[in-house]
Amino acid sequence: MMRAGEIMIALGLFGILVMGGCGGSSGPTFSDDFSDPTQIDNPWFPLEPGTTWVYQGDTEDGLETDVVNVSHLTKKILGVKSVIVVDRVYLEGELVEETFDWYAQDDFGNVWYMGEDSAELESGVVVSTDGSWEAGVDGAEAGYIMLADPQPGVKYQQEFYEGEAEDMAEVKALDVPVTLANADTYSCLKIYEWTPLDITVMENKYYAPGIGPVREEQSDGSQQIDLVSISSDMMPDIAPSDFSTPLVIDNIYFPLVPGTTYTYESDTEDGFEETFVEVLNDTREVMGITCRVVRDRVYLDGLIIEDTHDWYAQDDEGNVWYMGEEVDNYDYSGGPPAITHEGSWEPGEDVDGLGVTAYPGIVMKADPRVGDSYHQEYYEGAAEDIGAVVDSGLTISVSGTIYTDCLKTQDWNALEPDDQEYKYYAPGVGVVREEALDEDFEVDETTDLISVSVL
Questions:
Q1: 387-435 pLDDT, tens digit each
Q2: Pairing of strands 385-398, 416-426
Q3: What residues are paired with 57 via a beta bridge?
Q4: Among 176, 215, 259, 422, which residue has the fewest nearby CB atoms (within 10 Å)?
Q5: Are both 390 and 319 inside the same structural domain?
Q6: Is the CB of residue 210 less than 8 Å from the CB of residue 46?
Q7: Which residues contact 271 (CB under 8 A, 6 or more apart)?
Protein backbone atom coordinates (compact mmCIF):
# COMPACT_ATOMS: atom_id res chain seq x y z
CA MET A 1 0.00 0.00 0.00
CA MET A 2 1.33 3.41 -0.96
CA ARG A 3 2.01 6.00 1.72
CA ALA A 4 1.01 9.65 1.42
CA GLY A 5 3.12 11.51 -1.07
CA GLU A 6 4.68 8.44 -2.70
CA ILE A 7 2.60 9.05 -5.81
CA MET A 8 2.05 12.59 -7.07
CA ILE A 9 1.04 12.70 -10.72
CA ALA A 10 -0.18 15.72 -12.67
CA LEU A 11 -3.28 14.95 -14.74
CA GLY A 12 -3.35 16.34 -18.26
CA LEU A 13 -3.36 20.13 -18.37
CA PHE A 14 -5.44 20.55 -15.22
CA GLY A 15 -2.61 20.91 -12.76
CA ILE A 16 -4.47 18.66 -10.31
CA LEU A 17 -2.47 16.26 -8.19
CA VAL A 18 -3.70 12.81 -7.31
CA MET A 19 -2.36 11.59 -4.01
CA GLY A 20 -2.62 7.98 -3.00
CA GLY A 21 -2.77 7.47 0.72
CA CYS A 22 -3.76 5.21 3.56
CA GLY A 23 -3.18 4.82 7.24
CA GLY A 24 -4.99 8.05 8.12
CA SER A 25 -3.76 10.21 5.24
CA SER A 26 -6.09 12.39 3.20
CA GLY A 27 -7.19 11.78 -0.35
CA PRO A 28 -7.07 14.23 -3.28
CA THR A 29 -7.11 17.92 -2.42
CA PHE A 30 -10.68 19.20 -2.51
CA SER A 31 -11.27 22.57 -4.16
CA ASP A 32 -14.19 24.85 -4.93
CA ASP A 33 -14.04 24.47 -8.72
CA PHE A 34 -17.65 23.29 -9.06
CA SER A 35 -19.60 25.70 -11.27
CA ASP A 36 -22.06 23.00 -12.43
CA PRO A 37 -21.44 19.95 -10.22
CA THR A 38 -24.59 18.00 -11.10
CA GLN A 39 -23.77 18.02 -14.81
CA ILE A 40 -21.87 14.74 -14.70
CA ASP A 41 -20.86 13.94 -18.26
CA ASN A 42 -17.48 12.30 -17.73
CA PRO A 43 -17.51 9.72 -20.59
CA TRP A 44 -16.44 6.92 -18.25
CA PHE A 45 -18.96 7.79 -15.54
CA PRO A 46 -21.96 9.66 -17.01
CA LEU A 47 -24.86 10.24 -14.61
CA GLU A 48 -27.99 11.37 -16.45
CA PRO A 49 -30.95 11.66 -14.05
CA GLY A 50 -33.47 8.93 -14.71
CA THR A 51 -30.93 6.42 -16.02
CA THR A 52 -31.07 2.89 -14.60
CA TRP A 53 -28.40 0.20 -14.98
CA VAL A 54 -29.18 -3.42 -14.12
CA TYR A 55 -26.35 -5.87 -13.42
CA GLN A 56 -26.50 -9.60 -12.77
CA GLY A 57 -24.14 -12.42 -11.99
CA ASP A 58 -23.73 -15.68 -10.13
CA THR A 59 -21.87 -15.37 -6.84
CA GLU A 60 -20.95 -17.91 -4.18
CA ASP A 61 -24.13 -16.86 -2.34
CA GLY A 62 -26.48 -17.09 -5.32
CA LEU A 63 -27.79 -14.91 -8.16
CA GLU A 64 -27.02 -11.27 -7.49
CA THR A 65 -28.90 -8.43 -9.16
CA ASP A 66 -27.72 -4.86 -8.77
CA VAL A 67 -30.08 -2.03 -9.79
CA VAL A 68 -28.45 1.40 -9.98
CA ASN A 69 -30.61 4.47 -10.61
CA VAL A 70 -29.58 8.11 -11.00
CA SER A 71 -32.27 9.95 -9.08
CA HIS A 72 -33.48 13.45 -9.87
CA LEU A 73 -32.59 14.49 -6.31
CA THR A 74 -29.49 16.27 -5.06
CA LYS A 75 -27.78 16.74 -1.70
CA LYS A 76 -25.48 19.60 -0.71
CA ILE A 77 -22.18 18.38 0.74
CA LEU A 78 -19.32 20.73 1.63
CA GLY A 79 -21.38 23.40 -0.10
CA VAL A 80 -21.42 21.42 -3.36
CA LYS A 81 -24.70 20.19 -4.85
CA SER A 82 -24.25 16.46 -5.44
CA VAL A 83 -26.25 13.94 -7.48
CA ILE A 84 -27.92 11.15 -5.51
CA VAL A 85 -27.54 7.67 -7.02
CA VAL A 86 -29.58 4.82 -5.54
CA ASP A 87 -27.90 1.40 -5.60
CA ARG A 88 -29.96 -1.65 -4.57
CA VAL A 89 -28.50 -5.14 -4.43
CA TYR A 90 -30.75 -8.21 -4.49
CA LEU A 91 -29.69 -11.76 -3.69
CA GLU A 92 -32.01 -14.37 -5.14
CA GLY A 93 -34.65 -11.62 -5.41
CA GLU A 94 -34.35 -10.37 -1.82
CA LEU A 95 -33.10 -6.84 -1.14
CA VAL A 96 -29.88 -7.19 0.87
CA GLU A 97 -28.23 -3.80 0.45
CA GLU A 98 -29.47 -0.28 -0.28
CA THR A 99 -27.06 2.59 -0.74
CA PHE A 100 -27.46 6.28 -1.53
CA ASP A 101 -24.23 7.48 -3.17
CA TRP A 102 -23.43 11.16 -3.71
CA TYR A 103 -21.37 12.41 -6.65
CA ALA A 104 -20.28 15.77 -8.07
CA GLN A 105 -18.18 16.71 -11.10
CA ASP A 106 -15.62 19.50 -10.91
CA ASP A 107 -14.87 21.95 -13.69
CA PHE A 108 -11.98 19.79 -14.93
CA GLY A 109 -14.17 16.72 -15.46
CA ASN A 110 -13.16 14.69 -12.40
CA VAL A 111 -16.10 12.98 -10.69
CA TRP A 112 -15.89 13.21 -6.90
CA TYR A 113 -17.29 10.66 -4.48
CA MET A 114 -18.89 12.79 -1.76
CA GLY A 115 -20.15 10.02 0.50
CA GLU A 116 -22.76 7.34 0.91
CA ASP A 117 -25.61 6.29 3.15
CA SER A 118 -25.46 2.51 3.11
CA ALA A 119 -27.61 -0.14 4.77
CA GLU A 120 -27.47 -3.93 4.81
CA LEU A 121 -30.79 -5.71 5.20
CA GLU A 122 -32.03 -9.12 6.30
CA SER A 123 -35.69 -9.98 5.68
CA GLY A 124 -36.39 -6.30 5.06
CA VAL A 125 -34.80 -5.14 8.33
CA VAL A 126 -31.67 -2.96 8.44
CA VAL A 127 -28.94 -4.86 10.30
CA SER A 128 -25.93 -2.65 9.58
CA THR A 129 -25.02 0.80 8.28
CA ASP A 130 -21.27 0.17 8.31
CA GLY A 131 -19.41 1.95 5.53
CA SER A 132 -21.63 5.03 5.57
CA TRP A 133 -19.82 8.36 5.46
CA GLU A 134 -20.17 11.96 4.36
CA ALA A 135 -17.35 14.26 3.30
CA GLY A 136 -16.80 16.97 5.89
CA VAL A 137 -18.42 15.00 8.70
CA ASP A 138 -16.31 13.42 11.46
CA GLY A 139 -13.11 13.77 9.48
CA ALA A 140 -14.38 12.05 6.33
CA GLU A 141 -12.95 13.30 3.04
CA ALA A 142 -14.16 13.18 -0.55
CA GLY A 143 -12.23 11.24 -3.17
CA TYR A 144 -12.27 10.57 -6.88
CA ILE A 145 -14.64 7.97 -8.28
CA MET A 146 -13.47 8.73 -11.83
CA LEU A 147 -10.64 10.88 -13.18
CA ALA A 148 -11.14 13.29 -16.05
CA ASP A 149 -8.22 11.73 -17.91
CA PRO A 150 -7.47 8.29 -16.42
CA GLN A 151 -4.03 6.99 -17.37
CA PRO A 152 -2.48 3.61 -16.56
CA GLY A 153 -0.47 3.57 -13.34
CA VAL A 154 -2.32 6.39 -11.60
CA LYS A 155 -3.47 5.51 -8.08
CA TYR A 156 -5.94 7.54 -6.06
CA GLN A 157 -8.19 7.56 -2.99
CA GLN A 158 -11.88 7.03 -3.75
CA GLU A 159 -13.12 7.65 -0.23
CA PHE A 160 -11.66 8.25 3.19
CA TYR A 161 -13.41 7.81 6.53
CA GLU A 162 -10.85 6.29 8.82
CA GLY A 163 -11.70 2.75 9.84
CA GLU A 164 -14.97 2.74 7.88
CA ALA A 165 -14.38 3.63 4.23
CA GLU A 166 -10.88 3.75 2.73
CA ASP A 167 -11.27 2.46 -0.84
CA MET A 168 -8.33 2.92 -3.21
CA ALA A 169 -8.09 2.57 -6.99
CA GLU A 170 -5.47 2.21 -9.70
CA VAL A 171 -5.93 2.68 -13.43
CA LYS A 172 -4.68 -0.54 -15.00
CA ALA A 173 -5.33 -0.20 -18.72
CA LEU A 174 -7.25 1.49 -21.51
CA ASP A 175 -8.97 -0.15 -24.49
CA VAL A 176 -9.46 -3.53 -22.80
CA PRO A 177 -11.84 -5.73 -24.85
CA VAL A 178 -14.72 -7.01 -22.74
CA THR A 179 -17.46 -9.38 -23.92
CA LEU A 180 -20.39 -9.58 -21.53
CA ALA A 181 -22.54 -12.63 -20.83
CA ASN A 182 -25.14 -11.32 -23.31
CA ALA A 183 -22.42 -11.13 -26.02
CA ASP A 184 -22.22 -7.32 -26.03
CA THR A 185 -18.63 -6.22 -26.60
CA TYR A 186 -16.96 -3.03 -25.40
CA SER A 187 -13.51 -1.45 -25.38
CA CYS A 188 -13.08 -0.60 -21.71
CA LEU A 189 -11.13 1.27 -19.10
CA LYS A 190 -9.92 -1.18 -16.44
CA ILE A 191 -9.62 -0.04 -12.83
CA TYR A 192 -8.37 -2.14 -9.93
CA GLU A 193 -9.89 -1.39 -6.51
CA TRP A 194 -8.97 -2.45 -3.00
CA THR A 195 -9.27 -1.35 0.62
CA PRO A 196 -6.63 -1.49 3.37
CA LEU A 197 -9.46 -2.32 5.78
CA ASP A 198 -9.80 -5.81 4.24
CA ILE A 199 -6.89 -7.10 2.18
CA THR A 200 -9.06 -9.94 0.83
CA VAL A 201 -11.33 -7.48 -1.02
CA MET A 202 -9.81 -6.78 -4.43
CA GLU A 203 -11.88 -6.07 -7.55
CA ASN A 204 -11.54 -5.16 -11.18
CA LYS A 205 -14.07 -2.83 -12.74
CA TYR A 206 -14.51 -2.17 -16.45
CA TYR A 207 -15.97 1.07 -17.80
CA ALA A 208 -17.30 1.64 -21.32
CA PRO A 209 -17.34 5.16 -22.78
CA GLY A 210 -20.77 6.78 -22.71
CA ILE A 211 -22.15 4.00 -20.51
CA GLY A 212 -20.14 3.65 -17.30
CA PRO A 213 -19.46 0.39 -15.47
CA VAL A 214 -20.23 -2.72 -17.53
CA ARG A 215 -18.49 -5.42 -15.49
CA GLU A 216 -17.30 -5.99 -11.94
CA GLU A 217 -15.28 -9.04 -10.90
CA GLN A 218 -12.94 -10.33 -8.24
CA SER A 219 -9.29 -9.61 -8.99
CA ASP A 220 -8.80 -13.23 -10.07
CA GLY A 221 -11.58 -12.87 -12.67
CA SER A 222 -14.20 -14.83 -10.71
CA GLN A 223 -17.74 -13.84 -9.66
CA GLN A 224 -18.41 -11.57 -12.60
CA ILE A 225 -21.34 -9.15 -12.38
CA ASP A 226 -22.28 -7.91 -15.86
CA LEU A 227 -24.46 -5.13 -17.20
CA VAL A 228 -27.66 -6.65 -18.60
CA SER A 229 -29.69 -3.52 -19.37
CA ILE A 230 -29.64 0.25 -19.35
CA SER A 231 -32.72 2.43 -19.60
CA SER A 232 -34.02 5.93 -19.00
CA ASP A 233 -37.30 7.13 -17.57
CA MET A 234 -37.25 10.22 -19.78
CA MET A 235 -39.60 8.30 -22.08
CA PRO A 236 -41.75 6.19 -19.73
CA ASP A 237 -42.65 2.81 -21.18
CA ILE A 238 -46.11 1.57 -20.34
CA ALA A 239 -45.98 -1.29 -22.85
CA PRO A 240 -44.81 -4.04 -20.44
CA SER A 241 -47.60 -3.28 -17.95
CA ASP A 242 -50.83 -5.24 -17.78
CA PHE A 243 -54.16 -3.59 -16.97
CA SER A 244 -56.70 -6.28 -16.06
CA THR A 245 -58.72 -3.96 -13.80
CA PRO A 246 -57.40 -0.44 -14.45
CA LEU A 247 -60.33 1.27 -12.70
CA VAL A 248 -59.64 -0.49 -9.39
CA ILE A 249 -57.22 2.07 -8.00
CA ASP A 250 -56.46 0.88 -4.49
CA ASN A 251 -52.81 1.83 -4.16
CA ILE A 252 -52.45 2.51 -0.44
CA TYR A 253 -51.02 5.99 -0.98
CA PHE A 254 -53.21 6.95 -3.94
CA PRO A 255 -56.66 5.35 -3.58
CA LEU A 256 -59.34 6.64 -5.94
CA VAL A 257 -62.86 5.62 -4.89
CA PRO A 258 -65.66 7.04 -7.08
CA GLY A 259 -67.83 9.47 -5.16
CA THR A 260 -65.01 10.70 -2.93
CA THR A 261 -64.33 14.44 -2.66
CA TYR A 262 -61.21 15.93 -1.07
CA THR A 263 -61.24 19.58 0.05
CA TYR A 264 -58.00 21.52 0.52
CA GLU A 265 -57.34 25.08 1.70
CA SER A 266 -54.38 27.42 1.62
CA ASP A 267 -53.55 31.06 2.35
CA THR A 268 -51.35 32.19 -0.53
CA GLU A 269 -49.70 35.48 -1.43
CA ASP A 270 -52.52 35.99 -3.97
CA GLY A 271 -55.37 35.24 -1.58
CA PHE A 272 -57.40 32.40 -0.09
CA GLU A 273 -57.27 29.25 -2.21
CA GLU A 274 -59.68 26.31 -2.11
CA THR A 275 -59.24 23.09 -4.08
CA PHE A 276 -61.90 20.44 -4.61
CA VAL A 277 -60.79 17.06 -5.95
CA GLU A 278 -63.63 14.76 -7.01
CA VAL A 279 -63.23 11.13 -8.04
CA LEU A 280 -65.90 10.78 -10.72
CA ASN A 281 -67.74 7.73 -11.98
CA ASP A 282 -66.74 8.88 -15.47
CA THR A 283 -64.10 7.02 -17.47
CA ARG A 284 -62.01 7.81 -20.51
CA GLU A 285 -60.26 5.54 -22.97
CA VAL A 286 -56.57 6.41 -23.37
CA MET A 287 -54.15 4.26 -25.39
CA GLY A 288 -56.69 1.44 -25.23
CA ILE A 289 -56.81 1.60 -21.41
CA THR A 290 -59.97 2.57 -19.52
CA CYS A 291 -59.04 5.34 -17.08
CA ARG A 292 -60.70 6.87 -14.06
CA VAL A 293 -61.56 10.58 -14.38
CA VAL A 294 -60.74 12.88 -11.45
CA ARG A 295 -61.91 16.49 -11.49
CA ASP A 296 -59.69 19.08 -9.79
CA ARG A 297 -61.10 22.63 -9.32
CA VAL A 298 -59.11 25.49 -7.81
CA TYR A 299 -60.74 28.69 -6.54
CA LEU A 300 -58.98 31.92 -5.53
CA ASP A 301 -61.05 34.18 -3.27
CA GLY A 302 -64.17 32.50 -4.60
CA LEU A 303 -63.33 32.71 -8.31
CA ILE A 304 -62.47 29.56 -10.23
CA ILE A 305 -58.97 29.80 -11.70
CA GLU A 306 -58.42 26.21 -12.84
CA ASP A 307 -60.66 23.29 -13.76
CA THR A 308 -58.83 20.08 -14.64
CA HIS A 309 -59.96 16.57 -15.58
CA ASP A 310 -57.16 14.08 -14.85
CA TRP A 311 -57.07 10.46 -16.03
CA TYR A 312 -55.59 7.62 -13.99
CA ALA A 313 -55.24 3.85 -14.32
CA GLN A 314 -53.67 1.22 -12.07
CA ASP A 315 -51.67 -1.64 -13.54
CA ASP A 316 -51.71 -5.18 -12.18
CA GLU A 317 -48.59 -4.54 -10.08
CA GLY A 318 -50.27 -1.65 -8.26
CA ASN A 319 -48.55 1.30 -9.99
CA VAL A 320 -50.89 4.22 -10.63
CA TRP A 321 -50.32 5.73 -14.06
CA TYR A 322 -51.06 9.34 -14.97
CA MET A 323 -52.73 9.12 -18.36
CA GLY A 324 -53.20 12.79 -19.21
CA GLU A 325 -55.34 15.79 -18.41
CA GLU A 326 -57.62 18.42 -19.88
CA VAL A 327 -57.01 21.83 -18.32
CA ASP A 328 -59.11 25.00 -18.31
CA ASN A 329 -57.23 28.03 -16.94
CA TYR A 330 -59.24 31.18 -16.11
CA ASP A 331 -57.67 34.63 -16.46
CA TYR A 332 -59.68 37.58 -15.11
CA SER A 333 -57.13 40.31 -15.79
CA GLY A 334 -59.06 41.67 -18.80
CA GLY A 335 -62.58 41.59 -17.38
CA PRO A 336 -64.61 38.50 -18.37
CA PRO A 337 -62.51 35.37 -17.88
CA ALA A 338 -60.33 34.27 -20.75
CA ILE A 339 -59.96 30.49 -20.84
CA THR A 340 -56.75 28.81 -21.97
CA HIS A 341 -55.71 25.15 -21.97
CA GLU A 342 -52.03 25.36 -21.13
CA GLY A 343 -50.81 22.14 -19.48
CA SER A 344 -53.22 19.82 -21.28
CA TRP A 345 -51.75 16.62 -22.66
CA GLU A 346 -52.71 13.09 -23.70
CA PRO A 347 -50.38 10.10 -24.24
CA GLY A 348 -49.87 9.25 -27.88
CA GLU A 349 -51.05 12.71 -28.96
CA ASP A 350 -49.47 16.07 -29.75
CA VAL A 351 -52.29 18.33 -28.53
CA ASP A 352 -50.25 21.56 -28.77
CA GLY A 353 -48.65 20.80 -32.14
CA LEU A 354 -45.14 20.78 -30.66
CA GLY A 355 -43.88 18.08 -33.00
CA VAL A 356 -43.51 15.56 -30.17
CA THR A 357 -45.69 12.82 -28.70
CA ALA A 358 -46.76 12.73 -25.05
CA TYR A 359 -46.10 9.72 -22.82
CA PRO A 360 -47.84 8.52 -19.66
CA GLY A 361 -46.07 8.71 -16.33
CA ILE A 362 -46.38 7.16 -12.89
CA VAL A 363 -48.02 9.25 -10.19
CA MET A 364 -47.51 6.62 -7.47
CA LYS A 365 -45.46 3.43 -7.46
CA ALA A 366 -46.83 0.18 -6.10
CA ASP A 367 -44.01 -0.05 -3.57
CA PRO A 368 -42.48 3.42 -3.23
CA ARG A 369 -39.06 3.55 -1.58
CA VAL A 370 -36.97 6.50 -0.50
CA GLY A 371 -34.74 7.46 -3.42
CA ASP A 372 -37.20 6.46 -6.15
CA SER A 373 -37.69 9.14 -8.79
CA TYR A 374 -39.93 9.06 -11.83
CA HIS A 375 -41.66 11.13 -14.47
CA GLN A 376 -45.27 11.74 -13.56
CA GLU A 377 -45.99 13.07 -17.04
CA TYR A 378 -43.95 13.62 -20.17
CA TYR A 379 -44.98 15.90 -22.98
CA GLU A 380 -41.71 17.55 -23.96
CA GLY A 381 -41.88 21.30 -23.67
CA ALA A 382 -45.36 21.35 -22.14
CA ALA A 383 -45.72 18.88 -19.24
CA GLU A 384 -42.64 17.38 -17.60
CA ASP A 385 -43.48 16.85 -13.93
CA ILE A 386 -41.10 14.70 -11.89
CA GLY A 387 -41.63 13.10 -8.49
CA ALA A 388 -39.13 11.67 -6.03
CA VAL A 389 -39.66 9.86 -2.72
CA VAL A 390 -37.66 11.65 -0.03
CA ASP A 391 -39.00 10.16 3.23
CA SER A 392 -41.39 7.58 4.64
CA GLY A 393 -42.88 6.42 7.92
CA LEU A 394 -43.71 10.00 8.93
CA THR A 395 -46.31 11.14 11.45
CA ILE A 396 -47.87 14.54 10.75
CA SER A 397 -50.79 16.56 12.07
CA VAL A 398 -53.06 18.12 9.45
CA SER A 399 -56.17 20.13 10.36
CA GLY A 400 -56.34 18.45 13.75
CA THR A 401 -55.98 14.91 12.40
CA ILE A 402 -52.91 12.77 13.10
CA TYR A 403 -51.71 10.74 10.11
CA THR A 404 -49.10 8.02 10.58
CA ASP A 405 -46.80 6.10 8.23
CA CYS A 406 -46.93 8.94 5.70
CA LEU A 407 -44.91 9.12 2.49
CA LYS A 408 -43.15 12.36 1.51
CA THR A 409 -42.32 13.23 -2.08
CA GLN A 410 -40.57 16.14 -3.73
CA ASP A 411 -42.26 17.20 -6.95
CA TRP A 412 -41.21 19.68 -9.59
CA ASN A 413 -41.53 20.58 -13.25
CA ALA A 414 -38.36 20.23 -15.30
CA LEU A 415 -39.52 23.24 -17.34
CA GLU A 416 -39.59 25.39 -14.17
CA PRO A 417 -37.07 23.69 -11.86
CA ASP A 418 -37.23 26.44 -9.23
CA ASP A 419 -40.92 25.71 -8.57
CA GLN A 420 -40.77 22.74 -6.22
CA GLU A 421 -43.05 21.31 -3.56
CA TYR A 422 -43.30 18.58 -0.98
CA LYS A 423 -46.33 16.32 -0.86
CA TYR A 424 -47.38 14.11 2.03
CA TYR A 425 -49.45 10.98 1.37
CA ALA A 426 -51.29 9.19 4.16
CA PRO A 427 -52.11 5.48 3.74
CA GLY A 428 -55.72 4.91 2.80
CA VAL A 429 -56.26 8.62 2.18
CA GLY A 430 -53.88 10.07 -0.39
CA VAL A 431 -52.47 13.60 -0.38
CA VAL A 432 -52.99 15.32 2.97
CA ARG A 433 -50.54 18.22 2.65
CA GLU A 434 -48.62 20.14 -0.01
CA GLU A 435 -45.79 22.54 0.78
CA ALA A 436 -44.59 25.00 -1.86
CA LEU A 437 -40.86 25.73 -1.52
CA ASP A 438 -38.97 28.97 -2.05
CA GLU A 439 -35.58 29.29 -3.78
CA ASP A 440 -33.83 28.23 -0.56
CA PHE A 441 -36.04 25.13 -0.30
CA GLU A 442 -37.83 26.59 2.71
CA VAL A 443 -41.58 26.08 3.00
CA ASP A 444 -43.30 29.13 1.51
CA GLU A 445 -46.96 28.08 1.39
CA THR A 446 -48.90 25.14 2.82
CA THR A 447 -52.03 23.51 1.44
CA ASP A 448 -53.83 21.19 3.86
CA LEU A 449 -56.55 18.60 3.51
CA ILE A 450 -59.63 19.93 5.31
CA SER A 451 -62.15 17.19 4.71
CA VAL A 452 -62.91 13.96 2.87
CA SER A 453 -66.47 13.10 1.96
CA VAL A 454 -67.93 10.04 0.23
CA LEU A 455 -71.31 10.03 -1.50
A1: 999 999 999 999 999 999 999 999 988 888 778 999 999 999 999 999 9
A2: unpaired
A3: 64
A4: 259
A5: yes
A6: yes
A7: 300, 301
Q: Are residues 295 and 332 in the same domain?
A: yes
Which of 17-25's residues contact partners 24+ apart within 8 Å by CB, and which partners?
18/144, 18/147, 18/154, 18/155, 18/156, 19/156, 19/157, 20/155, 20/156, 20/157, 20/168, 21/157, 21/160, 22/157, 22/166, 22/168, 22/196, 23/196, 24/162, 25/160
**Whether pLDDT at 377 is above 50:** yes
Element containing residue 385 per DSSP (H, E): strand 385-398
Closest CA to 84 of 54, 128, 141, 40: 40
Nearest to 81 by CA among 118, 40, 133: 40
Domain count, the chain: 2
- Tell me the per-residue pLDDT of 250-287, one tens digit each, with 9 for 90 and over: 999 999 999 999 999 999 999 999 999 999 999 999 99
- CB distance 81 to 102 below 8 Å: no
Q: By residue range, what is the domain housing residue 347?
A: 260-454
C-alpha to C-alpha distance for 45 and 293, rounded to whole angstroms: 43
For residue 148, what pLDDT band results from cuts at 50, 70 and 90?
Answer: very high
Distances (CA, A) of 111 to 42, 108, 230: 7, 9, 21
pTM of this structure: 0.79
pLDDT above 90 for 146: yes
